[in-house]
Design brief:
Length: 414
């Protein structure tokens, strides 16, 4: 079967959880199907494309501006912004985040659209690129539910007046995402929690995972008293979570264990203010070539995420490589089948988190034992080869009839 797969970026290098998920989905589809891949690019993208060439039949690049989406009204006084938002509600069922600024991407793909049997959208908002294509021919990966992201941001009231618009937009996004799940061939989410939130009709789970069976894990012993935080710093929950940890938790750890070391790694660190991490024992590694090495060198991983949606790939990586994780409850969302008995600790209070980390640092033998148990279970439940298997069950169900008249206008199916 010929599948056209679109994503917001080329998933290489594997320096972000989003790239790792896209890469795993692409690799799985390529086992049984001919996959054409399309993504926005700028500059020389040859090296990035080399990373996925074994899995694709063809690459269709589009300009970076093709990815631009509309935003909530943010000009004028409150009344004008509210009225502008009201006009949007009356004119479209599609949320702002799913409205493209232009049809550039759609127009690039349109001339050859009839060559494909199925269409895979890496995010729900990308379905607009395929306007005119029946949604019964689409597979959609909604690993981050837009309505949950907006709602969680709205209820904090940190956005002031905009929180009202965010709440209304969250409701519109909820109806859109649930309707989309009913109309598409299948919609995928990353956890059972998200499946229940979105509705079970037309929704399947593809958990975030780690490449356990596809690679040889380096034999690296952990360094005493070492912790690791890893994440893309272009993602606000990672930045805010680490800042909270450095401000509220790290001083408590250092007061009891002056030998403790926190290594911080991730893409985009050079683009943000990291002065809060300028403390004794903290070392900024920046972007790293192989997360596995950094994870194995640490005694445990910390995931102090305070808000956000989806599930954290970094937790799957740590457990899969045999390292325990200390996380907030929000950070560990989607890993309800992992507990303290198999390496995943949940602490929302700074003092409790510090105490748990100190206890693990003081007993490396216990850390290693927990890590072995975590790896054993992760190999069963979190290996990408296993988690992406549901994808292939649905690619054989696609409606292979000729696509009816294709139009360039946006289509919002009832």
């Amino acid at each position: 079967m010929k599948i056209l797969f679109i994503a917001p970026e080329i998933p290489w290098p594997l320096n972000k959880g989003t790239c790792q998920r896209t890469y795993a989905l692409l690799k799985t589809l390529s086992r049984e199907h001919q996959v054409t891949f399309s993504a926005p690019v700028e500059g020389d993208y040859t090296a990035r494309l080399d990373g996925i060439l074994p899995f694709i039949h063809e690459f269709i690049p589009v300009p970076l501006e093709a990815l631009q989406r509309r935003r909530l009204p943010n000009t004028g006084n409150r009344l004008i912004r509210f009225l502008n938002y009201g006009k949007s509600l009356l004119s479209s069922k599609i949320p702002y985040a799913c409205q493209m600024e232009q049809t550039l991407w759609h127009d690039c793909l349109y001339p050859k659209i009839e060559l494909y049997d199925l269409f895979f959208c890496r995010y729900a908002y990308l379905t607009e690129v395929f306007s005119g294509v029946p949604r019964s021919r689409m597979l959609v990966d909604a690993d981050d539910l837009q309505f949950m992201r907006l709602w969680r941001k709205a209820v904090t009231w940190k956005a002031g007046f905009e929180s009202i618009l965010l709440g209304m937009e969250a409701l519109r996004s909820r109806f859109f995402e649930r309707r989309l799940a009913r109309q598409t061939l299948q919609t995928f989410v990353c956890s059972e929690v998200d499946r229940r939130k979105l509705g079970e009709e037309g929704v399947s789970v593809i958990r975030n995972g780690v490449d356990i069976s596809g690679r040889t894990t380096p034999n690296i012993a952990p360094e005493d008293n070492s912790l690791l935080f890893i994440g893309a710093f272009t993602y606000e929950p990672n930045r805010a979570g680490l800042e909270w940890f450095c401000r509220e938790v790290w001083p408590l750890i250092m007061a009891e264990n002056s030998h403790a070391k926190l290594r911080v790694a991730g893409y985009g660190m050079d683009q943000v203010d990291m002065r809060y991490a300028e403390q004794d024992g903290i070392r900024l590694l920046g972007e790293i070539a192989d997360p596995a090495v950094a994870i194995l060198e640490a005694q445990l991983m910390v995931v102090p995420i305070l808000f956000g949606t989806g599930t954290r790939v970094k937790i799957a990586e740590a457990l899969g490589y045999g390292r325990p994780v200390v996380s907030t409850t929000m950070g560990a969302e989607g890993y309800e089948d992992f507990t303290e008995k198999n390496g995943l600790f949940r602490c929302d209070d700074p003092l409790k988190m510090a105490d748990q980390i100190l206890a693990l640092l003081d007993d490396q033998a216990a850390c290693l034992s927990l890590g072995r148990e975590a790896k054993r279970i992760a190999k069963e439940r979190l290996d990408w080869n296993n988690t992406t298997a549901p994808l292939l069950r649905f690619t054989s169900l696609g409606d292979q009839r000729p696509i009816p008249e294709l139009v360039k206008e946006n289509v919002d199916e009832p």
